[in-house]
Amino acid sequence: SFEGRVEVYHDGKWGTICDDQWDDRDAEVVCRQLGLSGPATVTSEGDYAAGQGFILLDDVACTGTELSLLDCPHSAWGQHDCSHAEDVGVHCSPEGNTAVDGSLGPPVRLVDGESTREGRVEVFLNGQWGSVCDEGWTDRDAAVVCRQLGFR
């Protein structure tokens, strides 16, 4: 549950990411998006089975502080110069992570904040992002979201 080939969901389909320009900073963003806050590394080509179907992202260039791959510069969706032999693999270290039992629920992100550490909470369900209603929302709920995003 801490490593494997990275795939993204876009426009109703899953696809892989090309490893061009990919480094440990990009891997850290993937792990953070999955709710894992420990160190992250890129795995070697061929460590995991090659993907099939679409290659959706290429030339991803994260700084390492983003909460989501969607916040990182990248080529246009589906535009690439790769084969599946160049699919990205990531290893998220289980050490120092705040994730509990690996059951994090749907992906979560913060949008429209003044920094990457604040904003409206959105979850990814059924292929799309949607807002969370604040009815009954407490600081305890906010703390869970922050932990899932890799913040202590």
From TrEMBL:
Pfam families cross-referenced by the UniProt entry: SRCR
Record InterPro entries: SRCR, SRCR-like_dom_sf
Domain SRCR: start-end pairs: 1-93, 108-152
SMART domains hit by this protein: SR (SM00202)
Annotated localization: Membrane
Main location: membrane
Keyword tags: Disulfide bond, Glycoprotein, Membrane, Repeat, Signal, Transmembrane, Transmembrane helix
Keyword Aminoacyl-tRNA synthetase listed: no
SUPFAM superfamilies named in the record: SRCR-like (SSF56487)
Keyword Chloroplast: no
Residues that span the membrane, as ranges: none
SS bonds (residue pairs): C18-C82, C31-C92, C62-C72
Membrane protein topology class: Single-pass membrane protein
PANTHER family from the UniProt entry: NEUROTRYPSIN-RELATED (PTHR48071:SF4), SRCR DOMAIN-CONTAINING PROTEIN (PTHR48071)
Protein name: NETR protein
